[in-house]
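This protein record is not my work; I was only asked to verify it. The record follows directly below this note.
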Amino acid sequence: MKLKTTYYQELLKGFDTHVVATKSIRSGNYYTGQVYEFLGFLENNRILDVRRIERKHTNKYYDLLCTRQKHRGKGFLSQGSINGVLSTLRMFSIWLQKTNVLSSSFDIPANSKIEKQGNNLFALKREICTTDQIKLIYNACNSNCERSIIAIAYGSGLRRLGLVQLEESDVNFVAGNLVVIESKNNKTRHVPISDFFLNVLKEYSLERLRILSKHKRKSKAFFIDTVGQPITGEMLNTTLKRIISRTKDQALIKKQITLHCLRHSIATHLIDDGQTFEYVQSFLGHSQVDTTTIYARKRKIKNYYTI
């Protein structure tokens, strides 16, 4: 069924272009499909402007998801699938803010926790880099862009989506921080940048302007490629793998480090250095301090097995 209103058709088209540019065509189909269904729900309930969305509407949509049959196979949507839809709607809400369609995000029900069967610690495992390994990764960078990616992914603990969505105006060189809109809770926060990494970002920022000028392009995205196009999430992953392969450190290569591992690494290092859970919670943008204490529990488990 096609969306009836031109307004929603244009919003969906714009969001699809954004997702394809920042992720991939395959991802675009996935996320756009979920937003398409949500906009169809709004139309059916005569809510023809996203600025009119209220909590009662998103609660009603959540209830609908809980009773909806799967598109393929039998049965209802799993809680994991429902959580995926909610995360997509948060991404959509952030995009609406970034494009000035909304001045503030609409309320979206929180993801429900999924009970895990058994006591499998390995299922919860996330690789952590040592500080020496972080230095190896940083020293293996070949460009200011690569150094800036590591500076923000590790130094400021941003998620991959945060790196992709980061705009030039989000980097405050005077205050020494980043302005980040979290995809998980739609909250705006200011993330500090160390003086060392701030100088790295300044050098890249000048290089970025030269690239845009050379190719006669305009881009809000902070991270761009060598021809001035915004860097996608897949490109960030490929860049990190390339950097790690240059270290020629087999132990590091075998760890299969991702950008999110760098986020976990800085959190662990901050706790190891004696920072409070509350500070690390604020630094990472966790809504609950319980999420932050996971890092401390993991350190205790690791220390126990290395004695």
The CA atoms of residues 143 and 204 lie 8 Å apart. The first strand starts at residue 171 and ends at 172.
